Amino acid sequence: MTNKTFTGTSSYIATDDMKMAVNAAVTLERPILIKGEPGTGKTQLAIEIASSLGRPLFEWHIKSTTKAQQGLYDYDAVARLRDSQLGDDRVHDIANYIVRGKVWDAFAADEQPVLLIDEIDKADIEFPNDLLQELDRMEFFVYETKELVSARNRPIVIITSNNEKELPDAFLRRCFFHYIKFPDSATMEKIVGVHYPNLKKDLLKEALEAFYKIRDVRGLKKKPSTSELLDWIKLLVAEDIPPEALRSGDSKSAIPPLYGALLKNEQDVHLFEQLVFLDRRTNRQ
Amino acid sequence: MKPSITELLTLLEAMKKGVAGHSVEDFYFLSRACLVKDESKFDRYDTIFAAHFQGLEDAFKALVEALPEDWLQKQVELMLTEEERKQIEAIGGFEALMDALKQRLDEQDERHEGGNKWIGTAGTSPFGAYGYNPEGVRIGQQGSRHRNATKVWDKREYRNLDDSVELGTRNIKIALRRLRKFAREGAEDQLDLDDTIDKTARNAGLLDIRMVPERHNAIKVLLCLDIGGSMDDHVRVCEELFSASRTEFKHLEYFYFHNFVYESLWKDNRRRQAERIPTSEITHKYGPDYKLVFVGDATMSPYEIVYAGGSVEHWNEEPGAVWIKRLLTAYPKAIWLNPEPESRWDFTPSIKLTRELMNDRMFPLTLSGLDSGIKSLR
User: What is the pTM of this model?
Assistant: First the structure.
């Protein structure tokens, strides 16, 4: 089937366990469930897999109101009703009013596609159960046209979850599972490296140090993650902040510049400022 | 979730197709992706994997001496209590303990349960999941300390994730679903097919499109939670209930009380002395269509319920029993969920008393209790 393996790309650092999980899913043509903190590149992974294997990518973003059926197809009854009023000839064929969903698009693709089901935990708690059969057999039935749609090439299905809801066991049993753990600083250096190849070494070092320090602050509501670090570094470069300004030993600028890119909620900012204040006081004594 | 035969077959199929290559590390990643579907269980998996493969890797002689797996499994959950920690300090710290443990492992050749040795059996620690953070002695780690190369599974990086609140709420959410009451409110954005057909027919076939708002769960819930004191033992189950209700009900108002409800409740435990909300204000603000749910162990001195001034925290002008009656009059649909086991209810006078005040609508805070509670709320 496929002899290519996923090894990460020039813009995405894949760890060994991630490669193994992805390759197992690709080889066995089973869905893979990706979990991890927000901002660790779950959605990005699907995009990178598609581009590294050279496959078309279909993205299905799930919202709280998304129904499983919408991924398969929609029957546009209103359009048909309207056409019948206008005496349009199309009205006699119901197939004209079946609107394909993302899953159908992926099933109909000429070469094996990558299908991303993004943030599956956003949907109703029964949503994953409604997709069991479709993901298992890679086929579904269109009742309106009495047609069985089966995948021409079994897509590589990538499902991401933010852990907002627990997923049903039956669903989990059918998937491979990978948890993107938060990168350690060595991996993080590589990740920043592929995004900003020309970054000054000392700036990177200081930025990472400050970043991990902030992550270590206890009680933060939302810890900054990889994507926030990348944004922050982009800002630092754009503003041309000198590396010395990040050094926390300097008590005047103990709060890292542009920290708004890292801390996204006022309680966290407040907590952080308080801690810095306490820190300064102990330093003075 | 325990891995089933489905996962095993997947793993075997993947092995057959040569996904894992021929290194133990690859096999470790592959079998983890196949068998473990929950990152909070990675740590456990690592431990077992380490314990299992340590023998296989070194040599075949180790295979013969390999520890029985069920014995190891018990060890996985090993953790130390405060008291035990002191004992360890007495022995001479962690390193000494590790040596002693290694020695014990060498001596011990069958599964050990009971007794008061500090190895202990899994799950007997009185602190449970909320006790001392399980930095306990694990057999997998033990192996790596004496070898120079640390394997991935010996790093055990997933330790902190165990027992986050969101996991385990699925069952509660499913139970709470039964309380759903759908109603249409808000913007009209859905086609009402029946009404459209009806109106179109009446309109002599000229299309008359009718829209309705989407259905939402319109159930309204007032949640009153007992906090502090004897409730500390039940924090976990209460957090699960709370976090499940927060996502399930759009109209959820929650208040805290300590031991029993009196003339005021609060929303923020840190500022509970400063920001109290009078109970009468609550009954005025939220209409009788709200369902009232108390969560508390109702374990206290009966005086706290029946006497003015009985509260342990402040001077209450009127007894708690009066206040709960007022609340029950304001909210005819009410239940009390009690995390204490049902078998103990009859032996605690305050629980009996509360149950009588609730007209017997007290249910244990378990899934089945929640089910019957919800039935009586409907």
Answer: 0.58
